[in-house]
Every structure is written in C-alpha cells, then in structure tokens.
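Hmm, how's this folded?
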Amino acid sequence: MILAVFFSISIGMAQELNCEVVVSAEQTGQSNLPVFKTLQKSLSEFLNQTTWTGATYQNHERINCSVFINIVSFENETFTGTIQVQSSRPVFGSSMISPVFNFNDEQFTFTYREYEPLNYSQNSYSSNLVSVLSYYVFTMLGLDADTFEQEGGTKYYEEANRIVTTAQQGNSAGWRGADGNRSRYRLNADLLSNAFVGYRTALYDYHRLGLDLMHKDPTNGKQGVANAIVNLKKLGDSRPNSLLMRVFFDAKAQEIEQVFTGGPSIPVNDLKNALNKIAPLYAENWSKLQF
C-alpha cells in the first residue's frame, strides 16, 4: 500500500536540488530555435524551485545533480530524444563528491508548448515531460536517502511509484512492465522489491561504512567499501544482469578504481573476483586495482 504524502511549496524553504539542466538539439539541425532555450530555462526552474518534500534543506544539503536532454527530432510540439540523469552526494569529512546515480533513459517522448507552465501534482497527470522529470527527482531523493540511512529512501520510491501509475494514462513508453528491462517501470519496481534489498543495503554500507570513514581511518574505510561490493555479489549471483547492478556500476566504476589504486593497501583478491563476476563490462577498471 502506498502511503499518502502531501507536498507543498513554501517560499521560505530551501529547495532540495541543485540541478544543472542542459537541452541539446544539435541532431535536429535547428538547435538555434528559441524553444530549446526556453525549455531548458523552464526545466531548470521547475527542478530547482519546486519544493518536493516539505522538508527543510540547508544550501549545503541540496542534492547536486544534472539532467541532459538530447532532442533528436521534433514536429510541432512533439519532441523525441533521450534524457540522462546523474546525481551525487558529498563524502563526510572531505571535499570528495561521490556519484550515486547515472542513468540514460532512451524512452523519452513529450509534448511541450513554449512558455507553458510546468507544475507537479501528486494526484493528477499533466504531461509526460512533468511526469518523467518528477519521477527522476523522487528516484534521486530515494537513492540519496539510502546512502545515509538503511532503506531511508522508501517513501521517495513510493512517490515515484505513484507517478509510474498515473503516467500510464498518457500512453508514453517507459511506464509499463512491457517496456523493457531498462524502463522507468523496471527501475522503480526493483528499488521497491524485497528481492533487491541487498542493493539498497550495499548503497548504505558503501557510503556510511566505507567512504564516510576514510577521512579518519582510510584503511577501514577502504575495507568497508570492499565489503559492500563483495556482499553485493550475493545479489549478483541470485539476480544476474539485473538493472540495479548496472545502475550501481555505471555510477561507481571510476570511483572504485580511484579508491583502490591509491592510499593504504588492503587485500583485494576477493574484491576483484566479485567485480569481475558481477560487472565484467568494467574489467579494464578492475585490472588496475592494487593490493
């Protein structure tokens, strides 16, 4: 059962996101049309000026993220392209920024009339554009919360699930189980599934029991990161080639390489074996890990 959560806009409350938005229309051959600049500005205002949760966020607590929209074709007010969403979180006691989410959604078609207002309503469907952006906001909020608290992101995934349900009435791709293994539907369903709780546990352990300890104890911090990944292998064994496993390493592969190619040494044989088993696509990164 999805719990009802009410969100309101408060003028005196800092918003949750610090989001950079880029709309590229180079592939259309008409990238200089004003509508693309208007769209980019409207989306930036929508993401950064909406209060999504009702919670009070200090400026330094806002989630750093980016949205890159690549428009490949458009006709009248119908646009087709892709949307790539990335988010990160700070590492305690350091200037390091850790990537949490990196997802490229290729099922992105929407209608947009220049200067039309963009508003999120919890209980109604307004457009696929608003639904897709709002869905990714709550997904990023959930993933961020999971890195700070065990399964702390559940309420945000549930709100994203509400969007999945209401957006189905728009008949756009990405919102149904039949839309493939990299759809918005699949991502949300897996994040809420008990079968993938190991993924969410790994997010918490990797950050709170790993990266966040490295400022005061680099050896134990590195070991915490390694333990989280080795434990993640259990999920990989039971759910091979799952979407969430790909999502994890699309965000983390470069960071893992950096963590284990410098600083104090720890045994990495079990870690490398786990990584090569569950994320062979990044074998070149794993070959650089040092004892």
Q: What stands out?
A: Confidence is low (pLDDT under 50) at residues 1-12. Residues 128-148 form the longest helix (21 residues). The CA atoms of residues 33 and 259 lie 44 Å apart.
